[in-house]
Amino acid sequence: MTGLATRTQRPNLHYDIVNPETGIAYPPLEARGWAFEPKRMKQLIDDGRILWPEKPSGRPRLKRFRNDLKSDFTGFSTVREVGYTTDGTRELEALFGESVFDFPKPVKVIKTLCEQVTEDGDIVLDFFAGSGTTGQAVAELNDDCGGVRRFILVQFPELISTGKYPSVSALARERLRRVKTRVSRQHNRLLLLIGDSVLTSSRRLISKRGTPIIN
To answer: Where are the domains of the chain?
Structure first.
């Protein structure tokens, strides 16, 4: 229930909240104030939407009901514990059997973000696809929950000086081929636009010249 404005910025959000049953007053945080103006706060109190602390040193909180929520997921303020670059490197090495790309994003980070902010049927756009982590994350998320999210990946065919793959976009396409064999659900629909105008939909990946790449 705390706001984001100082007393100077929003003086109308700096006032004491009084518990009508105990008469205990709760002052706002000087650096933040409350999230609601007095009129709205009074309405919330009258409607029983405030959770009062057991101790005077506690802070009142807003009571939320399930039907008020847009999602069952709790938002997060950090992804530090979700995955690290070293995880991304290990994932790619496990897929290719060797080191093929430096500092790839970990799949779990992108997968967690997609789980938090997308709904079934959404299209996820990654305009800096790199090695194709986002495509793998969306495909695995679909496989986990039976969803039909789609993705568009865009990657300039930047040359790779070493390795079997001539460009970053070629590496990303190969990664998605390999991921495809690991996705078990037949109803996954994948949409891809990457590098030299490659498009994939459902089970077929076709180059701009019309040559089938994945059947």
So the answer is: 11-68, 85-214
